[in-house]
Amino acid sequence: ELAYLNGHYLPKNEAQISPMDRGFLFGDGIYEVIPCHNRKPIALQRHIDRLQRNLSAIGIKAGHDDSHWAGIIRTLAQESPTEHCGVYLHISRGTAAKRHHTYSDGLSPTQFAYSFQIPAPPSSANRPSMGLKLKSQEDLRWLHCDVKVTALLGNVLHYQYAVDEGFDEALLYRPSGKITEASASNVFCVKNGVIFTPALDNTLLPGITRGLVIDVLRDHSKITVLEQDLGLQDFLDADEVWLSSSTRELAPVTQIDERVIGNGEIGPMWARVIDLFQRHKYEYA
Ligand code: PLP
């Protein structure tokens, strides 16, 4: 399995970094996951734009233009043993001689990437056999969830608690009642033919898939999509609920806590939207 580390391609199991890397010591870094189908990255420029934004957000000066990142992503997708893969790209602040919270400008950021297999894209013809079950939890993460940082312990624990209780993912809400996202996905719900998703702010990730779903619907359908604040009750009372992420695309949900969503079946709007998404997802840079 091929990986990329600091300017070189090498077998993944030969890639090594120092334990003094701030990514290891502090989770001081950012990452991206770019989905590639038939070895072609989806919405590549949007992923690179978000990567560059996240580097600036935490003050890492990697000193590379978009074509550097695009080259790594395209190479790993081309060389992937599977035609459907995700490229994981991780940039930490680098390795310092001493462990100290604050950092100086002189560090050389560590760049690491590799590809991994993802499922074939879902569609109305290739639908999951079952919907997912979500466990609602108060969102205990920090207040910069809009930045895709590698310090994911909050997300890890939310996801683990959900799975330990027999659920597939967590559905997170702030003390205000606002639903933010799931621990590794954005969320949508459908009521009376209208699609809703939480409005973007600092408490959730601006998912690339979320944005693509919204753009495909606005450009290629007359279905209304609204970005607004939503509470747990909106999701419990919805006709359909979905998760979105680069690796899952759109995944239907049929249970939240003990409550069955809609009639408990994967819904007709999911089938319609996933087919629109598959038809048009390559059109967006
Ligand atoms: N929210 C969180 C917390 C995530 O980790 C992810 C990514 O997997 C998403 C949302 C979805 O983002 P994207 O569609 O860019 O993969």
Describe this structure in words.
- The chain is α+β, with helices and mostly antiparallel strands.
- The protein has two domains: 2-117, D-amino Acid Aminotransferase, Chain A, domain 1, CATH 3.30.470.10; 132-283, D-amino Acid Aminotransferase, Chain A, domain 2 (Alpha-Beta Barrel).
- Helix content is 27%, strand content 28%.
- It has seven helices and 15 strands.
- α5 (208-220) packs across α7.
- The chain is globular.
- Residues 33, 155, 181, 184-186, 205, 207-210, 244-246 line the site of pyridoxal-5'-phosphate (PLP).
- Pfam families: Aminotran_4.
- Involved in the biosynthesis of p-aminobenzoate (PABA), a precursor of tetrahydrofolate. Converts 4-amino-4-deoxychorismate into 4-aminobenzoate (PABA) and pyruvate.
- Belongs to the class-IV pyridoxal-phosphate-dependent aminotransferase family.
- Pathway: Cofactor biosynthesis; tetrahydrofolate biosynthesis; 4-aminobenzoate from chorismate: step 2/2.
- Its cofactor is pyridoxal 5'-phosphate.
